[in-house]
Design a protein that fits this description.
- This protein has an eight-stranded mixed barrel, surrounded by five helices. A six-stranded mixed β-sheet has the order 19-20-18-23-24-25, with helices on both faces. A three-stranded mixed β-sheet has the order 12-13-14.
- It folds into three domains: 247 residues, EAL domain (TIM Barrel); 125 residues, Roll (CBS-domain), CATH 3.10.580; 167 residues, Alpha-Beta Plaits, CATH 3.30.70.
- It is elongated.
- The protein is of the alpha/beta class and 577 residues long.
- The chain has 20 helices and 26 strands.
Length: 577
């Protein structure tokens, strides 16, 4: 967190609650759980004594709740002026304040002008209590604030008094799950069920969902799996510095996010594959200079304003900019003034990021007010070009079609390429891993005895079991390589749990008990050099596993003739009464 600005709360001569330099503001990042990118910051008021609720409670008793809240909101905007890089700002206002939108905007606009922000750069987080305001007045106030350009979010979902029907009436851009709900993840089934329901609601309505108070790696991993795309909390705060928030993320968090980004994913193009030259101009360029640039280059869709080091400061989408500065009075009013007044906070992404990360970034930050281009930067945040979202969407769609074509039609599992890539990645990262081969014993006998349909059912059941294992075991990747053969690569501490799911159960199809064989190869760091070598060493282990009666599991190591037979019990095939 970063403390930028100080205010003081007190009581004026007329008895009104005023705000003066005794309240500090901390800025907590709101991060994408898929990319790790900070997509916004929330301004949190921190009184010197007590907490913000004490301050607002005192203001309410004095009859000045709305005025005090408005003052805090405008001061939060002013306090954000020293952030680097600038990010969209989330500002908390109580529901009662949202019923006085004209007064709120009257104080916010000067603060926005002073900091160079636009209303579209602000997300107003509406906080409880909701029961003390008139519903119709609140809905009208939120409509006015939206028309002014502000984003609308509802805070404290799950622990406040927000009626769920208000979600349907307002359709907020974002809802934030209360920390009390998140604290129950991943073990409390009730909390898990509530989050799952809200995630489904947000998916169907296109609302963004954020989790507040993320404190553990297990919670973050659970949120990833539930599809909660935004989160904030001490786990995600990272290091802080004066004037901004410094990343990278804490190492465990970065690893979880990287795992989520790569789980089961086929290779997709990088952002750099879509790089186009950017039209850049100095950050102090006038509106007339930018207009002349657009006039001389009718094909460019936007201009990026950069600082002396080449870092993006603002973006100017062509259509919106020209609409603002042309017309009978637009040129006279704007020509000599800085063009940055009409700009947006730039959406940026690293050139070495994957194209799926870019689409996640757009999905997390787009309020339907931006153009088709995202600014691409290098490791020093210097602009190296732009990428067009429409081109990235088309490229990702083509990659996904190729990925779908590679899935086995029976199990919907990917082919061996998935395991091939994961093994090569682990070898390159100098990791220990286990590669395993699973197949059904005498599968032809199954088809000949109970029919092909029963055989297909068995393969589908095994495929679902493997898919569930991949979902529950974060270090596991699975592939269906054809027929009754499956490949798995997993962490050493997960192979036992995987074997228990596959070998320690009775497989039955059409009343016929079936056994399976699992051959596994423990690959220490440097013991194998490629997927091809690992598969060659695994082949004789597969034969050895199939020679063990009943469902079997054997384990071997490169360079050693010693093989451990860890399972092997009942006859290969028998009728189940």
């Amino acid at each position: 967190m970063v403390t930028n600005h100080h205010l003081r709360a007190g009581t004026g001569h007329d008895g009104r609650v005023t705000v003066a330099p005794d309240v500090s503001f901390a800025f907590q990042p709101l991060l994408s759980t898929r990319t790790g990118e900070a997509i916004a910051v929330e301004a949190l008021a921190r009184p010197r004594t007590g907490d913000i609720y004490d301050l607002l409670r005192a203001a309410g008793k004095a009859g000045r709740l709305v005025q005090t809240d408005i003052s805090l909101a405008s001061r939060a905007v002013l306090a954000s002026s020293r952030q680097d890089p600038p990010l969209p700002l989330h500002v908390n206002v109580v529901a009662a304040t949202a019923t006085a939108p004209e007064e709120l905007l009257r104080f916010l606009r000067p603060a926005l002008n002073q900091t160079g922000r636009k209303p579209r750069d602000i997300v107003l987080e509406i906080t409880p209590p909701f029961s003390r305001v008139h519903r119709a007045e609140l809905i009208r106030g939120l409509e006015v604030l939206r028309e002014a350009g502000c984003g609308i979010a509802f805070d404290a979902i799950g622990d406040g008094d927000l009626p769920l029907s208000l979600l349907t009436d307002v359709g907020p851009d974002l809802i934030k799950l209360d920390a009390h709900l998140i604290a129950g993840l991943p073990d409390d089934p009730a909390c898990l069920a509530v989050v799952e329901c809200l995630a489904q609601y947000c998916t169907r309505t296109g609302t963004r969902l954020a989790a507040v108070g993320v404190e553990s790696e297990e919670q973050l991993l659970c949120l990833n799996r539930l599809g909660v795309r935004l989160a904030q909390g001490n786990l995600l705060a990272g290091a802080s510095q004066e004037g901004g928030i410094a990343l990278p993320l804490p190492r465990p968090v970065a690893e979880i996010i990287e795992l989520n980004a790569t789980t089961g994913a086929a290779p997709v193009p990088l952002v750099s594959d879509y790089l186009r030259p950017a039209t850049t101009m100095a950050q102090d360029a006038s509106a007339e200079e930018v207009r002349d640039t657009f006039a001389a280059n009718p094909t460019i869709s936007g201009v990026v304003l950069v600082d002396p080091e080449g870092r993006p400061v603002s973006t100017l989408p062509r259509s919106r900019f020209l609409l603002a500065v042309t017309g009978p009075y637009g040129h006279a009013l704007n020509a000599k003034k800085p063009a940055v007044r009409h700009g947006d906070i730039p959406r940026t992404i690293r050139a070495d990021a994957g194209s799926l990360q870019l689409l996640d970034l757009v999905g997390d930050t787009d309020w339907d007010r931006h153009g088709d281009e995202v600014v691409v930067v290098d490791a020093e945040r210097v602009c190296v070009g732009v990428a067009r979202i429409s081109e990235v969407v088309r490229g990702v769609a083509e990659a996904k079609i190729e990925q779908a074509a590679a899935l086995n039609p029976l199990t919907r599992l990917p082919g061996s390429d998935t395991v091939d890539r994961d093994i090569d990645r682990r070898i390159h990262a100098a990791e220990m891993f286990v590669v395993a081969w699973l197949d059904v014993d005498s599968f032809k006998q199954v088809n000949d005895t109970v029919g092909f349909a029963a055989g297909d059912d068995l393969i589908r059941h095994i495929g679902r079991c493997l898919a569930d294992a991949e979902r529950d075991l974060p270090g596991t990747r699975v592939a269906h390589v054809g027929g009754d053969d499956f490949l798995v690569v997993t962490d050493l501490d997960e192979i036992s749990a995987l074997a228990a799911r596959l070998v320690d159960r009775q497989w039955v199809t059409e009343g016929m008990a079936v056994s399976v064989s699992l051959a596994s190869l423990v690959c220490g760091v440097g013991s194998v050099r490629s997927y091809r070598e690992a598969s060659r060493l695994l082949a004789p282990l597969k034969k050895r596993a199939k020679s063990v009666p009943g469902s079997s599991w054997i384990l071997g190591r490169p360079g050693s003739d010693h093989v451990e037979v860890l399972r092997g019990s009942r006859p290969a095939h028998a009728r189940v009464s």
